[in-house]
Amino acid sequence: MTGGVVSRVAALRFFAALNPRQLDQLCEAGTPMSYQPGERIFAEGGDADRFWLIETGSVALDVRIPGRGDQVIETLGAGAVLGWSWLHPPYRWQFGASARERLETIAFDGAAVRNRCDADPAFGYAMLRLFTPVIVARLQATRLRLLDLYATSAQVGRP
Amino acid sequence: MSTAAAPAIVGSAVPQPYRVVSRRVDTADTVTIELAHDAGPLPAFAPGQFAMLTAYGIGEVPISLSGLPDPGDDRARRLTHTLRAVGAVTRALHATAPGATIGVRGPFGTSWDVESAAGQDVVIVAGGIGLAPVRPVLHAVLAGRARYGNVVLLVGARTPADLLYPGELLRWAASGVQLGVTVDRPADGWSGHVGVVPALIPHARFDPAHSVAFVCGPEVMMRFTAQALIERGLPASRLRVSLERNMRCGVGWCGHCQLGPLLLCRDGPVVDYARAEPLMSIREL
């Protein structure tokens, strides 16, 4: 089972920086999971107990706005990693996520990976080096969108 | 003084009357107008160059060429411009109806030099109205398709309703262009990407070592796009951006469009990123 997960994870670039032993360690916590179009993967405020490597399909991250429903704030596609709230307390999802189309993923048990990080600092450091750029890139993307770059002065209320 | 210089001076200093022969509404605030000359035509424009368009009695603005004339067509000297109504002059130009006359000076500035991408993959990244100035690049590449490798077009817009040329985007995709479209704010029913356009770059299929990139959009968007392209391995010297400042004279006389050592109406708007990048990060510029 783990061998199948290892080959599927190794086929994507995201964990390419892990050495074979670290990849095996990670994949011990991995399970293939599929989702149907429209299926909710997790809801805002829920337990952030895992993360996913997207093999095929895409995911919509959303936020619930009273009176407006679930508003999509970003989409993630094949090769991307979904979820980093499992890394830090309080381990709660900040946003929701649902499959936009048929989705194939490898889901990783967050607590098991955290325990492995604690037990093996080299593994933990390697994982942080992989996840920190994801967090930084999403923060930068959010900042860019806050600038509302394509708006006219009138649209953003500037004189 | 040579008399042969006179037409160039007229074209660069005195607006020539052009008639609006067609007007297509692209989005709520953007139109594409086609212009035909009433008197002698101006010299041919190259992709990336701009014209100074005059709304008589109101003012003059720089607008890039957004279409490539068919050289075999007797309308070859027609000009196509896509413009967004954001100020007094562009609002007046936006409102012009077919048959109206506007003034045109040009062509001004540097071109995208599409020819230099022959034999390479072509990566075009556009944000918002920035799709208009790179549209002629795509026209030129598709006209000589066999001479180029992979063609990637990545487009970002504020909302789906703000996307320019939606019909053409579909046609380009059907003709083999690798198309990625993303919006900042999706509308109901939008099934495409949501997010910023640089986020599309890691997934695009092109060989960074053998590619030329053409990038146009808001300056901050171009900076982050360039960063993502360089992270993929594209050399900054093969990455071109289109910069804007306050173009006035169009020929480097008045200095209003100065960006450090560059006068963008003459040395731009298209500039190699290797040259532009240090200038784009200086607060005083």
UniProtKB/TrEMBL annotation, chain A:
It comes from the Bacteria. PROSITE patterns: CNMP_BINDING_3. It holds the Pfam family cNMP_binding. CDD domains: CAP_ED. Residues 14-83 form the Cyclic nucleotide-binding domain. SMART domains: cNMP. This is CRP-like cAMP-binding protein. It comes from Actinoplanes digitatis.
TrEMBL record, chain B:
Binds 1 [2Fe-2S] cluster per subunit. One of its GO terms (molecular function) is 2 iron, 2 sulfur cluster binding. GO terms for biological process: pyrimidine nucleotide biosynthetic process. It comes from the Bacteria. Keywords: 2Fe-2S, Iron, Iron-sulfur, Metal-binding. The keyword Transcription does not apply. Its cofactor is [2Fe-2S] cluster. [2Fe-2S] cluster binds at C249, C254, C257, C265. The keyword Iron applies. CDD domains: sulfite_reductase_like. Residues 13-114 form the FAD-binding FR-type domain. SUPFAM superfamilies: Ferredoxin reductase-like, C-terminal NADP-linked domain (SSF52343), Riboflavin synthase domain-like (SSF63380). This is NAD(P)H-flavin reductase. It comes from Actinoplanes digitatis. The lineage of its organism: Bacteria, Bacillati, Actinomycetota, Actinomycetes, Micromonosporales.
